[in-house]
Amino acid sequence: MKIKDILVRYGISTLGLVIIAFGVAVSIKSNLGISPPSCPPTILNLRWTGISVGTFTWIMHLLFILLQVALLRKDFKLSYLMQIPAAFVFGYLCDAFIWMLDAIGAPATDYGIQILLSLAAVVIAAVGIKIEVLGRGWILAGDMTTAVLSTVTRKPFSTMKVIFDVVLVAITAAFAWFAFGLLTGNGFTNVIREGTLIQALLTGLCMKVTDPWMDRLFGPLVPKHE
Fold first, then answer.
1. Residue 139: pLDDT above 90?
2. Residue at 199 is within a domain
3. pLDDT tens figures, 26-74
4. How many domains, the chain?
5. Is there a domain that residue 173 lies in?
6. With the C-alpha atoms ordered 199, 146, 86, 126, is the resulting torsion angle positive or negative?
7. Are 75 and 68 in contact (CB under 8 A)?
8. Contact between residue 33 and residue 197 where contact means Cβ atoms under 8 Å apart
9. Which stretches does DSSP call E strand in 55-186?
10. Could you list the residue range(s) of the whole structural domain that residue 184 is in?
11. Which of 8, 87, 177, 206 stands the most exposed, by the fewest C-beta atoms within 10 Å?
12. How far apart are CA 10 and CA 55, in angstroms?
């Protein structure tokens, strides 16, 4: 593949990561619960505030990659190691947007605004995920781990995605209860609430609407040959 084609692919995928990271920051700003993949890093940040959400995010992604290695063993491909730089890029993009929105103002408290921000996070995530996939460059470790678990257990990806998300939320709730005596967060920031359910259920549905638009906008830009 030509260098130009590689740069285009990774440029498009990076744009996808930027948009997804912005969606994570918007969901945190809503203070109505965030998407399952971002729940563990956020609750850990509430306990150990000196370590950023982004840092906890890439640490979690590295653990996901180790899980893939344990499950796949000799079938783990060298190309899968590209998840490592993707983890760092995505983690610090999350930090950048979280800090930016924190500078604008405090988390939302009006319920109507919280719902709107949660719905906005759904749309942003749907668009970002599609662009990331279209680029066929970076891939986030959470998505790859779900795919690996799907292959190993012989369960459909959609089924394994639900199971994976439920496990992440359950781990987050257990830690929140241990650390703060609450299931939702630390009493000020809500990590698990109805916004978590909104984002878990509606992102896939939203993609059915936004995917055709992203195909038309970015599809022609993606090199067709490998």
1. no
2. yes
3. 999 999 999 999 999 999 999 999 999 999 999 999 999 999 999 999 9
4. 1
5. yes
6. negative
7. no
8. yes
9. none
10. 3-219
11. 177
12. 22
